Amino acid sequence: MQRALWRRRDAAGAVVPHFRRDAPRHARPGARAASSQSVNSSSDVHASPNEGSPGVKGSAGAAPAFPRTPQAPRAAAPTVPFEAAAAAVLEGRSFMCTMCGKCCTMEDDGEVWVSRQEARSIAQHLGMSEAALLAEHCLERDSDGLAAPPGWWLLQSRRSPDGKLHCTFLDSETKMCRVHEARPVQCSTYPWWPDLLAQPGVWDWEKQHICEGLDHADAGPLDKEAATQQLRRAVTHELAKRRAREEGAAAGARSGGGGGGGGS
Question: What start and end residues bound the annotated signal peptide (predicted)?
Answer without folding.
Answer: none
